[in-house]
Amino acid sequence: xxxxxxxxxxxxxxxxxxxxxxxxxxxxxxxxxxxxxxxxxxxxxxxxxxxxxxxxxxxxxxxxxxxxxxxxxxxxxxxxxxxxxxxxxxxxxxxxxxxxxxxxxxxxxxxxxxxxxxxxxxxxxxxxxxxxxxxxxxxxxxxxxxxxxxxxxxxxxxxxxxxxxxxxxxxxxxxxxxxxxxxxxxxxxxxxxxxxxxxxxxxxxxxxxxxxxxxxxxxxxxxxxxxxxxxxxxxxxxxxxxxxxxxxxxxxxxxxxxxxxxxxxxxxxxxxxxxxxxxxxxxxxxxxxxxxxxxxxxxxxxxxxxxxxxxxxxxxxxxxxxxxxxxxxxxxxxxxxxxxxxxxxxxxxxxxx
Length: 353
Ligand SMILES: [Cu+2]
Fold this sequence. Notes:
12% helix, 6-stranded mixed beta sheet, Immunoglobulin-like, binds copper (II) ion, disordered C terminus, mainly beta
């Protein structure tokens, strides 16, 4: 005869055996009712599944990036006046790291984004403005924003870590110095956080303004789609060959001003050569005296400057990396110079007052 203590022990044992057997049948837990998820595979196929996915695949939120729009889009923020008369410019920048971008036809890549695109928005201010940048990290990894330029140490975006899942930090500093700068994530490994796309352009204009020009931004970048720390694609503004297939329309005899930044990871240098013309080059855009009149600049990672030129003759002109490997993998574009210099520019800058 079993006494009550023994039968109690056997009951416990039986429950334990059943529970552990079920564990092997439903390793995720008995009650796990898995939801159907949508993924994009490496070759771009969209898959719906409730099962486990072994090959690296990405959630199917896609990036909507238009190089034509990005080229001439400047973000001046929400503008107001402070009591002391200073201009306040407020921005909100949201980081995400789960989106997929079709970086080239049929090539899907998990990019990490500021405000949903690579590069992030081009931020623009006038020297002396107060910038207030509310940063929200909606990613799954820790991120920050490190701005180039002059600011207090605690606004440098390096030592404070803004945690995933909605972490917040507000960067606040006076815009300066005049020039073309950048911002990027500064979380280790920085190489990965930049190569995945967490960067953008930050322009500081002089108080007295600049001569009216057709202005545009070129961020020289690339993507390492097979994770071997070598880039597979190269471009101005993310999409290989985009401005070759969709030439940039400019006017003959009109002043063109290009803010150019090299943010390329993994390669020692990048460069830019322009056909049929030469340009004034202002390194970092900090001085109003050009350092060179040339058709070619070479930039290490993080180097940037302003190019100014006018085309004398209409027609098609290439611009591209003179490092031929890069141009053959996508870093090439065309200026279509139109003979309508009698018309006013459609794209003259305004300082977003
Ligand atoms: Cu980051």
